[in-house]
Amino acid sequence: MMSVNDKIDAPERPCDFCGAVNGLNRVENALGHILLCPLCMDDNNGNNDAYWRCLEGAAWSEQPAVQLAVWQALSKIDASWAREAAENIDLAPELCSGADP
Ligand SMILES: [Zn+2]
After folding, report:
1. Ligand 1 mean position, distance from CA 82 (Å)
2. Tens of pLDDT along 5-24?
């Protein structure tokens, strides 16, 4: 599971999921770190299908840490578009099996 470090004042880039620029948090995962806004970190937002469509774009990131985080987020969403997007992420098989939230 992800662990959260300090809030950052001068982020190096927008939210890796949705592109928001405010209130970003640095989140570590197995492959590095990503930047997430409060909405993208909010598990209670999990049923908000329309919001999470931003992950379809985020899935194209070239950063492995982002790919992993997007894949994990998609795997929690019970929708056909989410499954398709997750399948398009080129994750190493050992990561998929070990990446359960
Ligand atoms: Zn976000």
Report:
1. 17
2. 656 666 679 999 999 999 99
Does the pLDDT of residue 56 top 50, yes or no? yes
Starting at the earlier edge strand, list the strands of the sheet with 25-29: 3-7, 25-29, 32-36
Residues 6+ apart with CB under 8 A from 78: none
CA of 70 to the centre of ligand 1 (A): 11
Sign, CA torsion 28/31/37/42: negative
Q: Answer for the pair 75, 55: CB distance below 8 angstroms, yes or no.
A: no
Cα of 92 vs centre of ligand 1, distance in Å, is: 25
What does the block give as tokens for 3?
């662990």
How far apart CA 77 and CA 94 sit, in angstroms, is 21
Structure token digits, residue 27? 């989140």
